[in-house]
Amino acid sequence: MSTSLSRMKRPFFRELALHALAWLVCVAGLFHVYDLRHADLEVPIALDSWGDGVYYGAQVKIMLETGWVYHHPDLGAPFGLDLYDFAQFDALHLFIMKLIGYVWPHWAVILNVFFLLTFGLSASTSLALLRHLRLPALLALPLALAFAFQPYHFDRGQGHIMLAAYYHVPLMAFALVWLLQPAGLRDAEGLSLWRSWRFRLSILFAFLGIFGGIYYAFFFCLFYLVAGIYSAASLRQWAPLVQAAVLVGVVGLGFGCNLAPNALYWTREGGNRIVSTKPFALVEKCSLRLTPMLLPHRHHRVGLLPKVTHNYEKYSGIEKYEPQSAIGLAGGLGLAVLLALGLFGRHRAEGSGLLPRLGVVILASLLVATLSGFGALFALLVTPQIHAYGRMVPCLALFGLIAVGSLMDRWQLLIRPVWRGVALAAFSALIVFDVLPGKLDLDPSKARTQFAAAIQFGEAIQAAVPKGTAIYTLPSSRFPFERYDYLSGYLFTQGLRWSSPAMINRRGAVWQEEIDRLPPKAFLEQLYLMGFGGLILDPRAKETPSMKAVARQLAAAGLTPLSDGQGCSFYDLRGLASKFRARHEPAQWERMRTLTSLPVYARCWTRILPQDADGIRWCPSKTGMVDLVNTDADPVEVELSLRARMSSAGLRITGSVLRGDSAEVQNGLTSSRRFTLPPGSHRLTFHELGDAPRVDSPHGSVWFGVEQFSIQPATDPTPVAGRSRP
After folding, report:
1. Mean pLDDT within 603-617
2. In the beta sheet, which residues pair with residue 695?
């Protein structure tokens, strides 16, 4: 018995040694590519600009400080930041980062360690799949490394770290391979589906897949359905299609579980679709393109090869929103073979027919994902949310590597045994050399310089004000559509509160938009009333006249700013805030604070354009709508006032909060209406009276405009100078 047990252990330890070797090669390759010997792990190693990667850094820091990523009370000050509107499907990656945080509780270190781990994890999962397909170790190992070192992995880097973390793709591919075999998800034909380990693992991997990114999960739903339909037609059985539908249903279940916290928040606070809405044009701009996948990658070590790709990108004339990555020589060769087999191969039911059947899946996928493919129809007729079909690259690269491995496994038998090892070693070196990049478009010194300046500026702010100080950033930024460099203050300080980012179309963003338009004196008074003790003027994104006016106002008050050396200035407002408060009686101060912190705001201006520089919202439709939101738990007595502009006879306002009545606003006149606003979101509808034609304006053809729209507490009509709600 001990002899049989030792025989069982030998394959396990051989496989374990193979995985360990894969990890060692990954470590060696990454040391070379990212020069890890000289890297500072407290600075992101694969990030040299203030792009999306900075947001992921902030996401990790939020998770360290609050336990997860949905809410942070010290961002979006003074109201706090809720990220529920920005749905996340990366819980699997975040969970691994959280585990790393127990060992290294620093956001940049976590980001770096996780990014490096994704290479080893990708190598291990793909190696497990290739070995399951009975490829010999000398073939499976280099192919797994080619998958881990995909140019897509380096191109995404830490700027799109959640997309670079595609290590779960081979796990989801297990079910696809099984669906293309006669037994399907059963361990053997005739065996109960529910007792089969294939089925159980497929369910597990499909469920986990949606927590590793919505794109890869969506792509595999497509693969599963095509495989199920084709296998069902080939075998003349319904079972493969039913199994594929079950897997798609499991992905849908995971989707619902992932989205449950967001849905509960939307039920309570109202929807905010503007955050996640994708324009249809992105479907074409971010579509999959076959040629760039088959060309050499742009960081290839052979000097002449990148020029071919650069010339294609320069002269093709195809507008692209995000770069399309190559899949390497081996992956490209395998993909071409699969396409040929999908078109001309013998699609047999036996297991030996895997490649032709996989080729059919590839053909169907390309018809959906390529430029002007069926994916564009899906976006047009169903939803454009899945817009970046170019992100299918890692999946196609894996399938291409499987094909190359299967062909090489057959062809090696034609080579004399004495030369077989040499041929496999040369092949292994070639495919790893082909994908491992030479010089990336990444300047570590630039990253260190940028982050060093941000760290130094953060330390200066930290030393200037005590913990708990609220700091306002001008210009304010609305998440997630504006720049992310404003997050540097939060990333490189501890215990301070920050106005940016504020979720677009929510209370904090509306309040910030409002006070940003005030004259300098009134603007600063609003900051004092809301407890801000610091102000950052950051002209790097955009310098506005109001910023210059505020700087002059502060200079006249005798304040000297701290500078980061790149035009960004910090002002300590605590002294001015104390003087401002001392000039008011306590009762008057509380009344002013009540007005400033009114828990009611307006959002979702449906069919009405954003407010222009004159404070007017124009409506190109005869009807427009606005949602009034009461964030308090109790009803609030408010007074709504507004003026109608360029309307023939005026506006009629209707809504449930008006208790069935309607309010009419005559053209050019200001009208006020008092009512009780219950908790939650309540819609008001503006309807233009009369039959006058549209009016041409700088904003296009419009019906009417709304200006001087303000919400005030009905019990305290005394306004703060210069203040009006948008």
Report:
1. 80
2. 702
Q: Which residues pair with 652 in a beta bridge?
A: 664, 687
Give the bridge partners for 372, in sequence order.
none
Which three-class secondary structure string do you get for 410-425?
Answer: HHHHHCCHHHHHHHHH
Half-sphere exposure of 89 (CA within 13 A, CB side): 20
CA–CA distance, 408 with 115 (Å, rounded to integer): 31
Q: Spell out the SS3 assignment of 605-652.
A: EECCCCCCCCCEEEECCCEEEEEEEECCCCCEEEEEEEEEECCCCEEE
Residue 225, CA atoms < 13 Å, CB-side half-sphere = 13
pLDDT in tens, 463-504: 999 999 999 998 888 888 777 888 888 999 999 999 988 998
Task: Give the length of the chain.
Answer: 726
Burial pattern 474-496, b for ≥16 Cβ within 10 A else e, equals: bbbbbbbebbbbbbbbbbbbeeb
**Which of 435, 467, 495 is the C-terminal boundary of a domain?**
435
SS3 for 279-324 is CCHHHHHCCECHHHHHCCCCCCCCCCHHHHHHHHHHHCCCCCCCCC
Q: What is the pLDDT of residues 499-553, one digit of tens each?
A: 988 998 888 888 888 888 888 998 999 999 999 999 999 887 666 778 888 999 9
Q: How far is CA 258 from CA 61, 68, 165, 370, 507, in A?
A: 21, 13, 18, 29, 25
Domain extent, residue 408, equals 2-33+84-435
Residues 6+ apart with CB under 8 A from 325: 150, 151, 152, 155, 292, 293, 297, 393
Same domain? For 541 and 618 the reply is: no
Is there a single domain that holds both residue 502 and residue 363?
Answer: no
Q: Is 378 left (phi over 0), alpha (psi -120 to 50) or beta?
A: alpha
For residues 415 and 289, membership in a common domain is answered with: yes
Give the angle subtended at the CA of 367 by the CAs of 366 and 369, to the nearest 5°. Answer: 60
CATH number reported for the structural domain that contains residue 635 in this entry = 2.60.120
Residue 242, judged by CB atoms within 10 A of its CB (0-12, 13-18, 19+), counts as middle
- CA 470 remoteness from chain centre: 27
Judge whether 12 and 20 are in contact, CB under 8 Å. no
